[in-house]
Task: structure prediction
Amino acid sequence: MSLLQDAREIHDDLVVFRREMHREPEIGLDLPRTQERVLAALDPLGLEVGTGSALTSVTAVLRGGRRDAANPRAVLLRADMDALPVQEETGLDYSSRVDGAMHACGHDLHTAMLVGAARLLHARRDELPGDVVFMFQPGEEGLHGARYMIEEGVLDAAGPRVEAAFGMHVFSAIDPGGQFITKPGPMLASGDEARITVRGRGGHGSTPVLAQDPIPVAAEIITATNVAVTRQFSVFDPVVVTFGVLRAGTKSNVIPDEAHLEATIRCFSDDNRARLREMVHRVAEGVCAAHGLTCEIEYDAGYPVTLNEESETEFARQVALELFGEQRHTRWPHPISGSEDFAYVLQQVPGSFVGLSAVPEGADPLRADFNHSPRATFDDRVLADGAALYAELALRRLTTARP
Ligand SMILES: [Zn+2]
Result:
């Protein structure tokens, strides 16, 4: 029987696993119930299992039966496991039972698929010419869980550093259900944040000459930043700067002491990322200086650009094509401007992040509620195929000659 057929045999188990996890979502770096669930599912396989210190991660190593002890090799498969602070509104019979928490980004499907891949590969361990590291990660939603797992050694869990890494993400909109999505080069954006406090001197609104008004200066920072985005950055390497917070003042005839701005700053190359940081400082400080005011800038580095290595992405595409055919593969023409902390793994080892559309049957992909919506619905009929792709990526990557 093919691995894909094996995957379809365990499909019902994966649906049960996923729905149980969906009912009991946990948020952040500390996911004790979820960790327990994964440990219980892996237990019968006898893998080498470790858990995290800074977070409730699970790292499991499957030793290949044909591993060469003198020249060991390993590859890594990753799933994130955390939910979001969202009140579920899907009306599904397996909806979240936890108030204010929901698996609205489909990480429950990722976890189920990776558990499935562990079972599939375990059944074929005698064929494996190397080891597989399974990375079950908390804290993807803004908490840098992948970075903690790297610091705690996940990339070296098998002994040798993993030579390639693959992650998968389901989407509840965009492409038709069942499509596997690949994209060489940048696939997702870096996501940084700037918080700017413009400091002036408050006073009477009738007499601005006796005050230093921070509000028009804050407005000018927004305008000047947007001008800089269009004049100082190539249209062929896009950047997005959105000021989502503008806060100042209490009454029309009172000039406040301060104005406060916050922006999300996204792009698709390390070069632009560094230049954006410099630009935001230069523009904000320069505009303030022009008006005799000062500002304070806090600039938080979020996730880096998710950069898919060319040859690993071509490899992943080939595997998807062989398993599921041309009609179930989409190559994204451009990246999307969300961000993802698997980017940290791809900074360390070559690999690829693969998309999988889980748009429910009958729904229009362009109108369906997207990831993070309280109404986002992920069709778990994709679970067996997703598990099969994970497993085939590891199996075939270890079977091919070392690049
Ligand atoms: Zn996600």
The chain is about 35% helix and 25% strand. The radius of gyration is 24 Å. The CA atoms of residues 167 and 284 lie 38 Å apart.
